[in-house]
Design a protein that fits this description.
Layout lengths: L1 H17 L5 E8 L7 E5 L9 H13 L4 E4 L15 H8 L8 E3 L3 H6 L1 H10 L2 E3 L3 E7 L2 E7 L10 H4 L6 E6 L14 E4 L8 E2 L3 E2 L13 E5 L2 E5 L17 E8 L1
Parallel strand pairs: 1-14, 2-3, 3-4, 4-5, 7-8, 8-9, 9-13
Antiparallel strand pairs: 2-14, 6-7, 10-11, 12-13
């Protein structure tokens, strides 16, 4: 009985205090001649709580230490549904001002951003040089390569329009979508789709994997690299937590993507 209680308490401690704060770096190498030599730091689902100043500074430090060519995000900077559950956004951006990349920071927004006002968040992000893509795209030049970064609105709170997001793109393209459910609508002309939202399920068990994900595909796209119909997508488990502040066998992550021929 005593040993059982100890085991249960140990698991609870891991869920509540250890794993949610253990930010890992996931390194991925992909073969793509069009993106060869480019280093991306991909982040999503920050869900910054009001008391997480040290955690936010740690996130900024990890990203900057990677010396990325470009930072890409799929949103959910805010946490929860009520103002008191999240760090005020004007405080969050004081940390984001210190993020460094050679060719900029581009993001789509998530459902929790919508609850706090997409227009306000977009204004504040773009005011510090972070470009928000909402069914739109930008053309940039990275290491003498022309690349389009496109992004769609959140599936839950907006109207993602992949066709509009890709309008006038005629070359190497990366698509940002908060929800991976949009992947079915992405054409194979897109080099890479990046998504988040599902947090890897937050709680995963050996063999079984994620228990639940808010997706029409269940846990299929919980996290990982997916290749379907000549298309490729990376879904991150994200940095923060939603609903309950717990993680188990699903640590928060910052994804570093590099490309070979």
């Amino acid at each position: 009985m005593t040993s059982g209680i100890i085991i249960i308490c140990s698991i609870l401690i891991i869920w509540l205090f250890v794993e949610p704060n253990f930010i890992t770096i996931k390194r991925i190498r992909l073969k793509d001649r069009d993106l060869q030599g480019i280093k991306i730091v991909f982040v999503s689902d920050f869900h910054i709580k009001f008391y997480e100043k040290k955690r936010l500074q740690k996130i900024v430090d990890i990203i900057n230490n990677e010396n990325p060519d470009i930072i890409l995000s799929t949103g959910d900077f805010m946490s929860g549904y009520k103002n008191k559950s999240s760090m005020p956004f004007d405080k969050i951006i004081t940390y984001f001002k210190n993020l460094k990349s050679k060719y900029g920071f581009y993001t789509s927004l998530g459902n929790h951003d919508f609850y706090r006002g997409n227009d306000n968040i977009t204004h504040d992000l773009e005011n510090i040089g972070i470009k928000v893509l909402s069914n739109s795209n930008v053309k940039i030049n990275i290491k003498n390569k022309t690349i389009y970064i496109s992004g769609v609105e959140d599936l839950k709170t907006g109207q993602p329009d992949v066709e509009k997001a890709l309008k006038n793109t005629d070359g190497t393209t990366i698509l940002l979508t908060h929800s991976p459910d949009v992947f079915k609508d992405v054409p194979d002309s897109v080099n890479l789709t990046l998504a988040g939202h599902l947090h890897g399920g937050q709680v995963r068990f050996p063999i079984i994997g994620a228990i639940f994900c808010p997706s029409e595909f269940g846990t299929k796209y919980a996290m990982g690299i997916f290749e379907e119909n000549n298309k490729k997508m990376i879904v991150t488990s994200g940095i923060g937590t939603s609903k309950l502040p717990i993680r188990f066998l699903c640590p928060p992550e910052i994804v570093v993507i590099e490309f070979d021929k």
